[in-house]
């Protein structure tokens, strides 16, 4: 599992064709769901399955927060008081409100993001000029700096200190090591380069928080910082905790963008069709072409379909929950039942479901989601 990641679930499914099964690991039982019907049973049992119970070990292993901060984070963890108070609940509600479709907060973030992307695109060679780039590293740099600038504003540490982008992706690509080596002293001894990368990111985020540079950031950055500080976190620990927000911004969007462009560039006809479609969203002036970004969603059905098809094929969207109490799943199609034991993990292997030919067919046309 550590070596293959989500591909391990695909290999098991192709070998055994099971929609729900138990996988025993050194950490305990995991229930792997790889069929749409068992996925329905998963969602119907949402009251006994918890995401927040998985957060505490993540806070300790990945964010290396002190005991007092961990206690603040885990207060009213599963809304036991019924009032949505507590850091995790309030930030969850904040994200839903601020980044809701057509909300002012989302428009604000998108405006800065597209301006940043345009600035990067406008310095690309024109005419006959060419420049060879490593696509993954190029996309990492552009998407990471543009996304974080949209969130953190003019004092974005990842833009002011570009080497932090490489440090972040060192952390992201070695998360399993952080869980295996949760103690910072042990990490520094056995994985010194990873430890140093994390410390550099922590230092920059702590400085961003301690100098209150978040007041110049997006409403999401401002309000999430205020929530943490209002609960009693120090500015230093609040900044360190900001790494979780950075991960939420980047861990899915950057790989998805890479695969999106890879699939497009590998298909000359699709590339030509998409260029023609996007051209209809541009307005020519005497010296430039202006792309209206909002039209990419409303006037480019092929572009949007190709994006959704890329997400189906490549996005790592497995959903994991902690089983808070013994829970009986009932398959709504076959009426089979399956007992999930308290203290285990239940995971929807979305990547497996998205690759099932009986659901989506053997081909992967970009028009799939027209």
Task: Walk me through the topology.
Layout: H1 6-16, E1 20-25, E2 28-33, H2 36-44, E3 49-50, H3 55-61, H4 67-74, H5 87-98, H6 104-121, H7 135-152, H8 157-160, H9 163-172, H10 175-180, H11 184-190, H12 192-210, H13 219-230, H14 235-241, H15 243-250, H16 253-265, H17 268-279, E4 282-284, E5 289-291, H18 295-298, H19 301-314, E6 319-323, E7 327-330, E8 337-340, E9 345-348, H20 350-353, H21 357-360
Short description:
Helices cover 56% and strands 10% of the residues.
What percent of residues adopt helix (DSSP H or I)? 55-70%
According to DSSP, the number of beta strands is 9
Total domain count: 3
Per DSSP, what share of the residues sits in E-state strands of 2 or more residues? 5-15%
Radius of gyration: 22 Å
Q: What is the average per-residue confidence, as pLDDT, rounded to a whole number?
A: 91
**Cα distance spanning the termini:** 35 Å
The string of secondary-structure elements, in order, is: HEEHEHHHHHHHHHHHHHHHEEHHEEEEHH
Ranges where pLDDT stays below 50 over 5 or more residues in a row are: none
Query: Helical segment tally?
Result: 21
- Strand order in the sheet with the most strands: 1-2-9-6-3
Q: How does the major sheet shape up?
A: 5 strands, mixed
Cα shape = globular
Category from helices, strands and their pairing: alpha+beta
Word description of this protein:
The protein is an alpha+beta fold and 370 residues long. The chain has 3 domains: 1-64 and 316-370, Uridine Diphospho-n-acetylenolpyruvylglucosamine Reductase, domain 2, CATH 3.30.43.20; 84-251, no CATH class; 253-315, no CATH class. The protein has 21 helices and 9 strands. A 5-stranded mixed beta sheet has the order 1-2-9-6-3. β4 (282-284) and β5 form a beta hairpin. α16 crosses α19. The longest helix has 19 residues, at 192-210. The chain starts with 5 loop residues before the first helix and ends in a 10-residue tail after the last helix.
